[in-house]
């Protein structure tokens, strides 16, 4: 019997009592402690036939406490209840197995997400990019090299992008409010996307255009030795920043239980990946610039200088497209990883209170933060059995017997209302338990939305 059906029965029976001139039927006690289809012998043969007040039953005349109405066979109900008690052993074993399963799955925990690593990588990149920009700008003024101008533009774009990433990290830490109940974690996705667009337009576009403009009118750069020194120094600075970014990516991958390369492609924090790819492009761009200047110095052909600028521009374009694609998926709303979703669904399907699952969804709402939603068809029999095991079925049986003996319907209605309210609270307790177990299985799930599903609504 579904929980929804149980509540509907309570409501309909209350309406029946308020409208019916007959006394309350005594067999109302049994459905709360067993199911008629499973224990039909606990009801008398006249259980579903209301008798008129003018024609009392023979049994009612022999008992001073009896009133006209269908008779409730207490000895048969006691035997049915003992049979139901024996059946609890199997259901209790099933519940114990499910809870052991959930605890066994929940033992697989991940490291806590380290947001400070991303912040440290961004701050390091900001300082390094400003220092490298100053060196490159000075060398460009001395040498007038096209490839060095491309590197100056590259450093400006990197510095501006790191500033955007730093702002995104800061704004994403704001606490949830009425307009944004799930917080501002996606702010970093927005600013990482803007940073990637800036790399594509300013870094890649301007560098490629400048390279093509000077492809046939270039001249060998002057004071090329200064350019070589600055490129070597910038390579060391950018390399140090790259190592910090790689360390941040490794920590992020460990926090999400992924390999480093998997985290680069589908990790949930774009900030550290953006810093690492931009620093990697910067180190590669410096190597390309050095190769271009070496080729110009060795051959005397100045065309290698703008060619190097075009290559650096294309490299930045590829990095920008990669970052745009990653942040686009994050902003649209990605689901959690398949293996995490599978573990959560396996736990829910194995729980005795769950009959069926409908419309299960998940979404990444921030780096390492997830949201999970499911509609569940609850097994009302198990929910009620769990509740009665906690509170004691004998007490409720006593209350219903005493209420059924009263001539007035008010006492029975009070007991029914109290029992129905407790059943609803019991269902809420089961929902809270499921939510807690789900968050143990995948600690990153911060918000769990479980809704009670009524399959009869769809069938009707």
UniProtKB/TrEMBL annotation:
It is found in: Membrane. One of its GO terms (molecular function) is monoatomic cation transmembrane transporter activity. It is a multi-pass membrane protein. One of its GO terms (biological process) is zinc ion transport. Keywords: Membrane, Transmembrane, Transmembrane helix, Transport. The keyword Repeat does not apply. The keyword Transmembrane helix applies. It comes from the Eukaryota. InterPro entries: Cation_efflux, Cation_efflux_TM, Cation_efflux_TMD_sf, SLC30A9. Residues 45-69 are annotated as: Disordered. Residues 125-331 form the Cation efflux protein transmembrane domain. Residues 54-66 have a biased composition (Low complexity). GO terms for cellular component: endoplasmic reticulum; vacuolar membrane. Its main location: membrane. Pfam families: Cation_efflux. The chain crosses the membrane at residues 189-212, 224-246, 281-300, 306-324. This is Metal tolerance protein C4. It comes from Dioscorea cayennensis subsp. rotundata (White Guinea yam).
């Amino acid at each position: 019997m579904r929980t929804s059906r149980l509540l509907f029965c309570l409501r309909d029976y209350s309406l029946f009592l308020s409208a019916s001139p007959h006394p309350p039927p005594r067999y109302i006690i049994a459905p709360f402690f067993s199911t008629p289809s499973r224990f039909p012998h606990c009801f008398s043969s006249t259980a579903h036939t209301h008798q008129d007040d003018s024609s009392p039953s023979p049994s009612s005349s022999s008992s001073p406490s009896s009133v006209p109405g269908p008779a409730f066979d207490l000895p048969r109900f006691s035997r049915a209840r003992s049979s139901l008690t024996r059946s609890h052993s199997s259901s209790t074993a099933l519940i114990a197995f499910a809870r052991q399963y959930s605890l066994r799955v929940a033992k697989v925990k991940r490291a806590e997400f380290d947001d400070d690593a991303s912040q440290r990588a961004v701050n390091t990149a900001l300082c390094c990019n400003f220092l490298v920009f100053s060196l490159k700008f000075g060398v460009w003024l001395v040498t007038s090299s096209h490839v060095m101008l491309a590197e100056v533009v590259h450093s400006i774009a990197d510095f501006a992008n790191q500033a955007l990433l730093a702002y995104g990290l800061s704004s994403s830490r704001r606490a949830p409010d009425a307009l944004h109940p799930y917080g501002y974690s996606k702010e970093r996705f927005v600013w990482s996307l803007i940073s990637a667009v800036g790399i594509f337009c300013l870094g890649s576009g301007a560098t490629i255009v400048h390279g093509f403009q000077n492809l046939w009118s270039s001249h060998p750069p002057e004071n090329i030795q200064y350019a070589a020194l600055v490129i070597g120094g910038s390579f060391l600075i950018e390399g140090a920043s790259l190592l910090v970014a790689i360390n941040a990516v490794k920590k992020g991958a460990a926090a999400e239980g992924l390999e480093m390369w998997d985290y680069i492609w589908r990790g949930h924090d774009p900030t550290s990946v953006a810093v690492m790819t931009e620093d990697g492009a910067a180190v590669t761009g410096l190597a390309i610039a050095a190769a271009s200047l070496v080729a110009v110095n060795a051959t005397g052909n100045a065309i290698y200088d703008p060619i190097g600028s075009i290559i650096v521009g294309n490299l930045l374009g590829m990095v920008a497209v990669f970052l745009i694609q990653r942040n686009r998926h994050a902003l649209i709303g990605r689901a959690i990883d398949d293996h995490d979703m599978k573990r959560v669904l396996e736990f829910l399907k194995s729980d005795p209170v769950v009959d069926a699952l409908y419309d299960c969804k998940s979404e990444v709402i921030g780096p390492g933060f997830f949201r999970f939603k499911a509609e569940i068809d609850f097994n009302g029999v198990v929910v009620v059995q769990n509740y009665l095991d906690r509170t004691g079925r004998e007490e409720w049986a006593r209350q219903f017997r005493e209420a059924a003996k009263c001539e007035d319907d008010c006492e029975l209605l009070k007991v029914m209302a109290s029992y129905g309210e407790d059943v609803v609270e019991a269902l809420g307790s089961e929902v809270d338990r499921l939510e807690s177990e789900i968050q143990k299985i995948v600690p990153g799930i911060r918000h769990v939305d479980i809704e009670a599903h009524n399959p009869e609504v769809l069938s009707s």
